[in-house]
Design a protein that fits this description.
Elements: H1 6-10, E1 33-35, H2 37-43, E2 47-53, H3 63-76, E3 81-85, H4 89-101, E4 104-110, H5 116-124, E5 128-132, H6 136-149, E6 153-154, H7 160-166, H8 168-176, E7 184-188, H9 193-207, E8 216-222, H10 227-230, H11 252-261, E9 265-269, H12 271-285, H13 295-305, E10 320-326, H14 334-339, H15 351-358
Helix pairs in contact: 3-4, 3-7, 4-5, 7-9, 8-9, 9-11, 12-13
Length: about 375
């Protein structure tokens, strides 16, 4: 069977895409939902944890869900170019979908603050990559100004069509659980478009009678880039999780609405906590993600340690069902993966030396 993209699969919930539009798709969506048996037992005995692995979208991140809609509509409206500001994933996705559409793509990135894997994607897809001496927020402001004054489509998440596509992740989760949303939905928060989109999706699906309930939304920022938690913009955001290194989120108020309407939480975790979760996902579950993806898992550990889940009502047997969105693939940021891992061991090219280094048994014992 041919795999459908999200517009083909959920077109009835995407009224922004008119019938007959030429869909620009890379067969995004339909990402796996994996039970995290090993990690859930370490977090809390009452948690049933599922991982929505968005890193298996075509360009390696959740951004593809919104980009298929944004680029489809940009082409339909006659635009010959798209533009975005990015910390990496948006630029890679925009470049891929622009290439698929046969139009130009321009990306503005903060100089020296983008993972090489993401930069490589943008470049190989043929985008014009412009590095500025400034942060993401400055790049976004420039992008807004340029696209307002020229015939270029803006494809950042402030484009509402992006969020329309991203909300389909909530549809897939509810569908996979037979029309039941999880008790809690956890994800990292950077520019805050994803938490906004997922909450929008869950609400729409419930209103349509496709889901029986709504989850509580749990979002986590990096401590060095936590403007929503601090209640004020961060002029110089700092975190090794580059995808969420944003000091003034575009969807700030909508993220607060999602938190408040769902009786949820937006908190923050340290880089040390994110790194621990990052390694745990890979070593305990075999799931390799970019650092920002692990912020939600780090947040779950933090909440559990605070006693947050001890008195939560149970909905699924004796368990609390939690879905964590893993926003991007680990190959987006290979440098951090190497730094977080043990170095390769150099050994002589002999069987004894290799067996000795394996530390399974000493050759002299055989």
């Amino acid at each position: 069977m041919l795999r459908q993209g999200i517009i083909e699969r959920y077109g009835e919930y995407l009224p922004c895409v008119p019938e007959g539009a030429g869909i620009i798709s890379l067969s995004e969506g339909s990402t796996p939902l994996l039970r995290a048996h090993n990690i859930e037992s370490r977090i809390h005995p009452r948690i049933e944890l599922w991982l929505k692995y968005e890193g298996l979208n075509p360009s390696g991140s959740f951004k593809d869900r919104g980009m298929t809609v944004a680029v489809t509509l940009a082409v339909r409206e006659g635009h010959k170019a798209v533009m975005c500001a990015s910390t990496g994933n948006t630029s890679a996705s925009a470049a891929a979908y622009a290439a698929r559409a046969g139009i130009e793509c321009v990306v503005l990135i903060p100089k020296g603050r983008i993972a090489k894997g993401k930069l490589a994607q943008s470049m190989i897809h043929g985008a014009r990559v412009l590095q500025i001496d400034g942060n993401f927020d400055m790049a976004l402001e420039l992008t807004r100004s340029i696209t307002n004054n020229h015939a270029i489509a803006l494809v950042n998440s402030i484009n509402p069509h992006r969020l329309e596509g991203q909300k389909t992740g909530a549809f897939e989760i509810a569908d996979d659980f037979g029309g039941v949303a999880p008790d809690f939905h956890v994800l990292p928060v950077g520019n805050a478009g994803n938490i906004t989109a997922y909450w929008m999706g869950y609400k729409e699906y419930k209103e349509a009678g496709k889901s029986k309930n709504l989850p509580r939304m749990l979002g986590f920022q990096a401590a060095g880039a936590a403007p929503i938690v601090l209640g004020k913009p961060v002029d110089d955001p700092q975190t090794f999780a580059t995808a969420i290194r944003i000091g003034n989120p575009a969807s700030w108020q909508k993220a607060l609405d999602a938190r408040d309407e769902s009786n949820g939480v937006i908190g923050m975790v340290t880089d040390r906590q994110i790194k621990r979760a990052y390694r745990t996902l890979a070593a305990a579950e075999g799931v390799f993600v970019e650092p920002a993806s692990a912020a939600g898992i780090a947040g779950l550990f933090k909440l559990a340690q605070s006693g947050f889940f001890d008195n939560v009502e149970q909905f699924h047997g004796d368990k609390i069902r939690v879905v964590a969105v893993l926003t991007g693939h680990g190959l987006k940021d290979p440098g951090n993966a190497v730094e977080a891992s043990e170095e390769a061991i150099s050994v002589e090219a002999t069987e004894d030396a290799i067996l000795d280094a394996m530390q399974l048994y000493h050759p002299s014992e055989t």
